[in-house]
C-alpha cells in the first residue's frame, strides 16, 4: 500500500510538472532592431509576462562592422537563484547601439544579438543568438538622432513612463487615481464641474441624492472609458484624438449643446426624447428615467474629448509607456483609473448639488437658471479660442451684466429686506461692475478679460505692461533643423496652441515674469504653433514624443537636444526657473 501511494504521488508530481508548459525562448524573448540614424541602432526585446532578461548577458556583433558600447536603460534589481543579485528587464527593453562606420551611402547589416533569460516559475534558458537584417541610411542625408527627454528619463513624464515599467500593478493604479484627482482642478478640466452640476440641476424636483449619485457615476464612467480608449489609441498611433477635435465644427457643436441645455433651464422648452423611445430606454436604464442615463454617459464621453485637450505630465507618461511598450492593457487601465480620479470630485459636487437643491418653490427655479448661466459660460469658454478677443470680452460682459440685473443690482431693496436678499444684491452689484469694466475695456481696445481696463491707461501705464518674449515661429521639421544647424546660442522650442488653456496660462504668468525673461535673454526662442493639428504639426510633436501642448524642448548652442530637461504641462515661474537652472 505504501509503495502504491508513493507511485501515485510520484505520478501526480510528474503530471503537475508536465502541465507547467514553458514558452519556447523564441516566443518568450522576441528581438527586433531599427536604425535611429546613420550610426545608431536600437535593439528592442518584447519579453513575455512572467519572464525576464539579464542585462549582463547581452552580446552584439555585426559582420565586418565594428560596434560601439551599448547604452542600456536602467533595469530592475533582482536576487536570482542562479547569478545572485542582478539587474534584469521585464516586459520590454530598448538598447541603443552605436555603429562605427566611415563609408557613405546605405549600409546593409546582419546583426547577431545574444541574450539570456529565465522564467519566474523557475526555468532558466541557455543564451539565445538570433540574427536580424537591417540597413543603416546614408549619413549625408540623415540627421543625427536626438534622444527625447522621455527616453532619457530627464523629465517628469519620462519618470512616470519608467514607473509604469517597474512599479507594481496596484501601485500604478493608486498613483494614477491620485493624479486624476489633482487634474480635476486644472484649467483644462475645471469646466466639467458646471457641466455635471447643470445636468443635476436640470433634473429639478427629481434631483434626489440617489439620483444625483447615479447620474454622476454614469457621467464619470463615460468620461473615464473614453479617456482610456482615446489614450490607448494616442499611445499606439502617436496622435492625440482630443487635439483633432479642437476645430470650429467640433467646438461649435458642443457649445451649441450647452446653449440648448441652458435655454431648457431658463424654461424656454423641456428637453426630452419621444415617448416611445423613452419607454424603451427606460427598461434598460433602471432608475435613470426617460433614457437620460445614455445621454449623461454620452455627455461624459464628449466632455473627455472636447473639454480637456491639454497634456499633463501624468498623461504624457502613460502615453509614452503605451507607445514604447505596446502594453495597451496596463496603459489603458492606468488611464481609466486616472479618469475615475478626475471624476471623484465631480461625483462629490454632483451628489452635493442633488442634496442641496431645493425640491419645491421659486428657489429651485432660481438655482436652475444659475446653472443655465454657468452652461452658457462653458459654451463661451469653448468658443473663446475661435472668437476675436473683443467679441469674447463682450460675451463675458453680457454673462455678468444680465444675471446681475436679475439679481436686483439696479433695483432698490425694500426696508424689510432679509440678509439673503442683501447678500445676493451685493453679488449682483459686483457682477455688474465687472461686466461694465469688460464692456468698457472691449470698446476701448482691451483684449485681456483679466485686465479689461489696461488699455485705458496713459502711456506710462502701457509702458509698465510686461514685455512679451520674442518668439520666432517654426512651422516644420525641416525649418527646425535649419534653425538648429545655424544656432550660435541655446535654443528653447515652445509648443503652443490657441485652444490650450495651460499654454496661455504659461504666457501670462510664467513667460511674463521678469526673472524668467532675464534668464531667457541669452536663448534663441522658437515657437511651434500646433493649433491646426496639420501633418507638419504632428511630425514636430512626434519628433520629440509629445502628444500635444504645452511642451518645451531645450537645445544646446551646437543644436543638440539637452536630454536632462524638458517641460510637459504647465509650470509656474518658480518651477520653470528651477529647471532653467539645470541648463544654465
Write a brief caption for the model.
This protein is α+β, with helices and mostly antiparallel strands. It contains 22 helices and 15 strands.
Topology:
Elements: H1 2-19, H2 25-28, E1 29-37, E2 40-47, E3 51-54, E4 59-62, E5 76-80, E6 84-90, E7 92-98, E8 107-115, E9 117-119, E10 128-136, H3 149-152, H4 156-166, H5 169-183, H6 192-201, H7 209-237, H8 241-244, H9 248-265, H10 275-285, H11 292-306, H12 313-325, H13 328-356, H14 362-383, H15 389-406, H16 419-443, H17 459-464, E11 472-473, H18 477-485, E12 491-496, H19 501-510, H20 514-519, E13 524-529, H21 535-543, E14 551-555, E15 561-568, H22 573-581
Parallel strand pairs: 11-13, 12-13
Antiparallel strand pairs: 1-2, 2-7, 3-6, 3-9, 4-8, 5-6, 8-10, 12-14, 14-15
Flag low-confidence runs. 4-19, 280-291, 459-464
* Strand tally: 15
Give the strand order, joined by hyphens, for the main sheet: 11-13-12-14-15
Main sheet overview:
5 strands, mixed
Strand-residue fraction?
A: 15-25%
Helix proportion:
40-55%
* Helix run count: 22
Shape: globular
Q: Helices and strands: which structural class? A: alpha+beta
Mean of all residue-level pLDDT scores: 76
- For the termini, the CA-CA separation is 83 Å
Radius of gyration: 30 Å
